[in-house]
Amino acid sequence: MSHPIYSEISSLPIGTKRFDKGPYFNFYHKENNKYGVYAERFYPISLNNNLEDMYWHLRTIAVLYDVPEKPIQIEGPDAAKFLDKVFSRTISSMKVNRGRYAIACNDDGGIFIDGVFFRLAENKFWYVQPDGALETWLMAHKKGFDVKVTDPNSRVIQIQGPSSYNILNALTDGAVDESFAYYHSGYFKIADQNVYISRTGWTAEIGYEIYTFHPDTDYRKLWNTLLEIGEPLGLKVDGIQSMTIRRIEAGILDNKTDFDMSVNPYEAGLGALVDLDKPDF
Which residue, among 181, 266, 249, 188, has the nearest Cα to 222 in the 3D structure? Predict the structure, then answer.
């Protein structure tokens, strides 16, 4: 199996000083791996696995991905009101420990960015962004709102595929159970590490995302536990190639690949994410 996006990967030496390799990099790095840069973070495109095998492993069992998506934290008394102003979808109606897909548009209606919100507390949100200058955008719009915009330096692991439920259930000693539905999220422990887990992903398969709390995470211990529990249940580690093929099949859009600011939500099929009944935004 091949896909034109990844059929020929051009490579060149690049310094790592400007971009973040992430805490998991050394746990799987080999010299012939292929990497990309996304949201100012390195991520593995290919770990030199057989692509067709890994695609079917994702579809039938489970795959672990070190992904570059970057949570940005928005908190303060005006957080919900501020986000209702900046994003086209109503955010203030979210429940705590729930997720919601949302987009932000420029003044001409073009899509600036898409991503998933999580409400960690009444006045505390994370927006998990793809590639794009979200933090700068939020800082530019926060005048008059009592909010604080920061980078919590959380790193994200996705475990995707039909066996991911059994793996997460085992990793959390049963805390993640069948009541943990799509777009649910919450605080859990894995290997005595505090993590935030969501029932989300980029594959349209059952899957979960595991967010860390910097600087308190023991990443080596967390990684080893993911594999110690997951591998007997069929878990394998791969680069994002197999995930990308699946997300394209599923019709999941990618910022700057499938749309940019020249495309409005209705042209992209995202009109349902525009709440025209709310006040000015």
Answer: 188
